Records
---
Amino acid sequence: MATVQLHHVTKQFGDVTAVHDFSLEIDDGEFLVLVGPSGCGKSTLLRVVAGLEEVTSGEIYIDDRLVNHVAPKDRDVAMVFQNYALYPHMNVYDNLAFGLRMRRVARDEIDRRVRQAAEILGLADLLRRRPAQLSGGQRQRVALGRAIVREPKVFLMDEPLSNLDAKLRVEMRTELARLHQRLRVTTIYVTHDQTEAMTMGSRIVVMKDGRIQQVASPLELYEQPANLFVAGFIGSPPMNFVRGTLEPRDGDLWFAAAGISIRVPGALAGATAGLGGHPIVLGVRPEDILVDPERVRVLPDHRVEALVEVVEPLGADAFVHLLAGEQRLTARVPGRVKVRVGDRLTVAPDPDRIHLFDPATEQALSRAATSP
Ligand SMILES: Nc1ncnc2c1ncn2[C@@H]1O[C@H](COP(=O)(O)OP(=O)(O)O)[C@@H](O)[C@H]1O
Ligand SMILES: [Mg+2]
């Protein structure tokens, strides 16, 4: 088990800065998820931790030992890739044992580790099979097993579930979580899939263009996104954004856009003080657009008139696509709510759950801890 520390790590490939001034401390036994769109530098970051790429600048420590110049094989990390290639002519046992044989581990020690990994992964009855005789999920487990038998200090997992079909991916998520609870090996898990990140990480790092955008728990990312990118990336369907202006009226500030006028709630008054006349972006999650007439009635300063353009029923929920003034908004409503295309509704963004962003810096304006 080990901690991993990254101090101002930058990695350039010619003109491309794949990872930019990345600093993070990963706790002993932590399962850290790194998420971001394709090309944001996730794999590069894992590869510099593994030692497969050298950093351009910065330091990497594994268990307080500077490893910048330590060879990959001496870093005691094991990597699991998306495109795991099992040896097709070897059975499961030999696939699991191969790396250890290369490292000249003693024969009975190899046998112990292979059988233990096979037991943990539910492969004990499949040791004599070849990869072609396994299902996709079983093959993925063998790939994980090859990392487990190494008994490394750190697991580095680069989108290991991306090649599996949707159902299997969900099952393997749970299996990986269980595996981590059992082994407690420090893990850095990379994915481009925000749902996967949200369900698997206790702490998530959101990356964009090689830079950290936010480090937080899943709930904190969802409820207090630090900037427009995180707000739009985490959550499905994504947060609604409306561009407008802050206007002073009767001692309050109001958010104003074509067809929408909403009083800025008290919790955001401090952050918006003095911003009258400034452009602003309002963000509201689909489930935070209230449609229940009883709830909308008591929010006279937050009502929005909207036309229902499309309804997408999903069973438990429905997505209702609205046109409010010139703005398109998506609301998520309970599936039982009767809404039809062409209906005119009065809706209200829940004032306790409105987000405001500065369009110049793209940063969120912070909300006071308690709303009056
Ligand atoms: N060996 C390389 N040579 C040149 N550019 C690279 C190399 N590896 C990655 N890059 C570039 O670095 C950026 C980050 O890539 P990568 O780490 O693979 O992103 P991700 O894994 O998040 O999709 C991309 O712009 C990619 O094209
Ligand atoms: Mg990648």
---
Amino acid sequence: MGPGLRLALIARLLFSLLMLFPLVGSGSEQQELDMEYGEEINETCAGCHGVFGQGSIEGEYPRIAGLDAAYIAKQLKDFKERKRINIPMIPFANERELPGDDVRIISEYLASIQLPTKLQPIDEENFDALERLHASKRVVNIKNIPGDKELGRKVYEDECSTCHAKDGYGSKKKRAPMLAGQYSEYLWRQIKNYRSGERLHDDDPDDAEIFNEISDAEFDGMLAYLATLDDD
Ligand code: HEC
Ligand code: HEC
């Protein structure tokens, strides 16, 4: 390779690097803007789901933070198309209030919020009461409920864990959401909706039968078992 050619190669390399870096820069800037905008959209959601998407302890409002972004986006799309009925969200989940791009941004924003399952031990030297209060709001640990956990574990592992994962935290590949870390009362309501056919499980009308074949006692046990999976 002659010196001329080598210089030309180096020049081309430098040029590509210069072209690359501004792109990387604007990419993360865009991400930051999306996150800021996500925070803004979330102000609407927070009225019901809480500032951190933590939901309500009694499960009237599910936790939406930390769910997979694609799953959140799919639910929002289903709400908008009324494939999944959610009356309280009708004023929010429509094309005017939540166009497609907003769906993507709020889904990514919520997916990125991590909710710890326990409060950190108190740091006596740097104790800040307000910070502590904020931190405690983010903690979600599903309370243990009565039910035959051993029976529930068995049914869960036989019938559900192939998609929702053995640890209960779901599978991106199977598009199945986390059931561990979600409120039991909310999950029971979904099970009833699947049984009645009001909501389609895995987009498959035949799944209603599976949910009807599993008894109330088995589901009680399963929810009791799932509630323990976020304990350590
Ligand atoms: C007026 C109250 C209210 C507001 C505001 C609201 N939601 Fe909801 N949302 C609900 C209720 C109630 C449910 C549970 C419905 C059910 O039981 O099927 C729900 C369910 C959901 C779910 C399904 C969770 C799951 O695990 O499948 C998602 C996702 C969601 N909301 C996202 C949002 C987003 C994003 C916003 C803001 C743009 C929002 N919600 C605003 C009341 C609300
Ligand atoms: C073949 C894979 C598969 C199996 C097996 C499966 N699920 Fe699911 N499940 C899904 C998918 C996919 C979704 C998301 C559905 C949607 O998009 O609305 C889902 C959603 C759910 C939800 C809604 C969660 C929420 O946040 O609203 C519940 C509850 C649920 N499944 C319970 C079960 C139970 C209980 C079993 C076992 C009896 C089970 N699933 C077995 C794939 C599966």
